[in-house]
Amino acid sequence: MGLASAESDRMQRGRAPADRSKLTSPIMIALSFAVLLAAWHFAAVTWPSRSLPGPLPVFQTFLRETASGDLPYHLGMTLWRVAASFVLAMVIGSVIGVFLGSFRRADQFFNPWLILFLNIPALVVIVLAYIWFGLNEVAAIGAVAVNKIPNVIVTMREGTRALDPRYAEMAAVYRFGPLDRLRHILLPQLQPYIAAASRSGIALIWKIVLVVELLGRSNGVGFEINLFFQLFDVAAILAYALAFVAVMLFIELLLVQPLERSSTRWRRRAA
Amino acid sequence: MNAHQLAGAAARLKVNIEEKSFRTSDGGTIEVLRDLNFEVGENEFACVLGPSGCGKTTMLRILLGLDREFRGSVQLPGKVEARMGAVFQEPLLLPWRTVEQNVRLALPTHLRDTSLDQLFASLGLAKMRGFYPSELSLGLARRAAIARALAIEPDILLLDEPFVSLDASTAQQLRHLLLGVWSDRPTTALMVTHNLQEAIMLSDRIVVLSDRPTHVLGTFDIRLPRNYRNEQVNADLLRAFREKFAGIRTEP
Fold it and tell me: Smallest Cβ distance to B134: which of A175, A176, A271?
């Protein structure tokens, strides 16, 4: 009864201001995860099997791997690869996207290339990168970036087409320098597109990084998952995968969202 | 065939546009400006008056260097490169920067750290420095745009109907504010308008333009200092103007 009334109370409060409804309440998130954990536990108890360990054994494996230092090390390696290929893909993709968005001729010429790259499977790029450049870090990170770059190009090209030329003219009249134009004219207008590209980017990149690690690296979460697959250690597979998902969620909550809020604060304070 | 020359010592604005036309979407051409020649003296406030759609904004874009597809020449005042203060029809403030940031960004490097207190105070913007443009009314946004144009200590001030779509009293208040800050540091100014009374109130010289293709019909000089002008004088000037340019479409 008490829970039900608290629940309805929260729902009413959540609905009132439009601003708050965007941020999912932490209690709702906790409750949602609790239900998922319970369902998992229930399934594991009902059908006991080595291939479906319950939450508790997975958590114990997580603690053991963390204590031995293996999990933080492999997590760190994967995280660094995600970060490196993310930065690489965003910078290269944005530059090419802004270029194609600004020059229609170039866009017409390069568009078929873009469609080609958009449709090459990630696996093919990874395998070719390893064959051509060897089983090394550069090939791994490069292959992940190449998989993401076409998506960034498409998004940033749209953003560039939507630029308001009047701001560029104002900047020309007042003789803004190249750096000021980038910081105060171009980037603020592209911000929603950059945010969209980064969001879908992080989600895509970390999944591809695992494949790259599985195929040609000797560390990282992907390598470990392959190892535990051969040992048929499902608890360890889940422990590594969930630990990394948790890290990505924290990055989203503690880094991406606050950054987005601060860069769009001028929108919210409309008169 | 066009040239943006610099005046050197003579701080005059000389406009000699022989021809400017636009290509239409069906392949034809529309001639907008034809033999448009006039001058504005040093520290003179001139108004360009003409019917709507006659190409006033096109002329201003040529002066601003935003449109270089024309035949003729334009000579701007200024020593090396004319510093232009522009107030566009829309305020065109960057919505993601505060009022003060918008003004400071336009400043040339040697003025970057200058104090803007006096300018903001005289335009009544002292309390709005930290506001974002979306928090300002149109009148206040126009003031911020005027502040930006004057803060750079321009060699020439170019204004494109800066008082349109404001209610009469706000527009009048803004005209007084503009005159106030302009008089503190006079500079060669050219304002495009289709409001005759506004032109009479503000300018030393009115350049009257024709319909398309636009050329100068004549000029109307007002040598009386602004502080001697009052409603009676302005009414007389208005009558004199109407006699000289009988049959010109102008707003009342």
Answer: A271
